[in-house]
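Design a sequence for this backbone.
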């Protein structure tokens, strides 16, 4: 099975929207190649103002911790260099994309990496899950966890394992030999009733192409 290398990322933030002045306080990310986590990135960052008691309680990230952390601008420069131009993955990707783009704009950088959402894709591949929150999916899929959530690297790693589980399903259930990143993006846009037929037709097309080229899948 051929799958693209991706960066799976997660932000912990001071609130819900950069348009309201909220900023990241932690970024965590993993690089996945050939269905394995091969590298990690994690950093706390100082947003330049005090964070609320609610965020402290939710994340366990205190004002004392971020007081000694580097500023957002420094961390985001390092993170942008680390992720390069690889495709991006996040759980509830619109949230993380908004903060990523806002922070990059503040330091005069722009990266147009394509992005896929594991919430949207998991709704199509795991409709039987009670819901599609990260903790629920991790439990539903039997992914090992130490119980840590709402910390950026832990959430990025768990999202990475959900991503790997989704590519495994596409391979095992549908016999796909190649899983392009655009397919993972498209899953979130296809109506639930049409997903199975769409994927079976794609698998048939791949087999036809392999047969025409004289290449046989393992």
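Sequence:
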């Amino acid at each position: 099975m051929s799958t693209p290398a991706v960066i799976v990322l997660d932000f912990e933030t001071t609130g819900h929207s950069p348009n309201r002045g909220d900023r990241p306080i932690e970024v965590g990310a993993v690089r996945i190649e050939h269905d394995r986590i091969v590298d990690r990135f994690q950093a706390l960052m100082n947003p330049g103002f005090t964070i609320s008691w609610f965020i402290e309680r939710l994340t366990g990230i205190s004002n004392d911790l971020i007081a000694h952390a580097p500023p957002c601008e420094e961390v985001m420069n390092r993170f942008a260099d680390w992720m390069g131009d690889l495709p991006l993955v996040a759980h509830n990707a619109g949230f993380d994309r908004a903060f990523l783009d806002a922070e990059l704009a503040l330091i005069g950088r722009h990266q147009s990496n394509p992005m896929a959402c594991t919430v949207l894709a998991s709704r199509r591949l795991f409709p039987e899950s009670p819901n599609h929150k990260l903790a629920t999916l991790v439990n539903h899929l039997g992914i090992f966890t130490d119980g840590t959530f709402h910390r950026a690297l832990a959430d990025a790693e768990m999202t990475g394992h959900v991503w790997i589980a989704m590519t495994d399903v596409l391979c095992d259930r549908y016999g796909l030999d190649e899983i392009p990143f655009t397919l993972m993006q498209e899953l979130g846009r296809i109506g639930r009733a049409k997903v199975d037929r769409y994927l079976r037709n794609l698998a048939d097309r791949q087999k036809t192409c392999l047969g025409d080229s004289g290449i046989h899948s393992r």
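Residues 11 and 179 are 26 Å apart (CA to CA).
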